[in-house]
Amino acid sequence: MKEQLQDILDFNKSNINDYCNSYKNYWEFLKDLKNIIIDIGNNLDKNKYDEVDSNIWISKTANVDNTARIVGPCIIDDYCEIRVNAFIRGNVIIGKKCVVGNSSEVKNSVLFDESRIPHFNYIGDSILGYKSHFGAGSLTGNIKSDESFVNVIFNGNKYNTNMKKLGSIVGDNVEIGCNAVLTPGTIVGRNSTIYPLTMVRGEIGSNKIVKSMNEIVDKRM
Questions:
Q1: Are strands 92-94 and 116-119 parallel, antiparallel or unpaired?
Q2: How far apart are CA 83 and CA 85, in angstroms?
Q3: Residue 152 · residue 185 · CB < 8 Å
């Protein structure tokens, strides 16, 4: 999996680096995320992390608001902010210096270091890259309206995942505008920007600006 995704994700900015090579496709990794989190958690430094409940490990440097709801298994890493009324709904890894904000919900997902979902976001069955940012109200859809299997287009090739629930993979330094929607199976390359109120599907390359699905331009670097 890591070889597939290394062009859009820096795996050194996560704690899943050692668990990826045995998976051919990233969606297969998400199927096993529960067991992976438990394995990582059981090997964390007990001087740096508290197991606050069964299979819920929180760094001693993280700031978790007392109104947040956290369901295990879950790892919350160093210097994270888990803000008012956040809902972490199981099978979640939150990397260093991440923000999960007001009324945001995450389930069965990995947030690489310094990614931010600060306001009214939903992230399901997804991977968010290093320093990715979701504007207020933006979300990842993870199930099709007809509940059929999700297809993925990756490097121009189409795959049937045989999964009914699959969100998005969002590359490093991606900016998602307010109230944008990533449909199930969407992939967004590194350094790309999605305009507010945009519906995105399929594969978006790196260094792109998505004004709409009919207007995608190269970003000036």
A1: unpaired
A2: 6
A3: yes
184-191's contacts with Cβ under 8 Å and 24+ in sequence apart are 184/141, 184/142, 184/143, 184/144, 184/150, 185/150, 185/151, 185/152, 185/153, 185/161, 186/140, 187/8, 187/152, 187/153, 187/154, 188/8, 189/7, 189/8, 190/7, 190/8, 190/9, 190/129, 191/219, 191/221
pLDDT (tens digit, 9 = 90+) per residue, 59-116?
A: 999 999 999 999 999 999 999 999 999 999 999 999 999 999 999 999 999 999 999 9
Contact call for residues 192 and 180 (beta carbons, < 8 A) = no
Q: Is the separation of the CB atoms in 145 and 163 below 8 Å?
A: no
Whether the CB-CB separation of 146 and 186 falls below 8 Å is answered with: no
Report yes or no on whether pTM surpasses 0.90. Answer: yes
Nearby residues of 17 by Cβ (< 8 Å), 6 or more positions away: 2, 11
Are the beta carbons of 221 and 207 closer than 8 angstroms?
Answer: yes
Q: How far is CA 12 from CA 15, 31, 103, 162, 172, in A?
A: 7, 21, 29, 29, 12
Tens-digit pLDDT profile for residues 138-195: 999 999 999 999 999 988 899 999 999 999 999 999 999 999 999 999 999 999 999 9
Sheet holding 87-89, edge to edge: 69-71, 87-89, 105-107, 122-124, 139-140, 181-182, 199-200
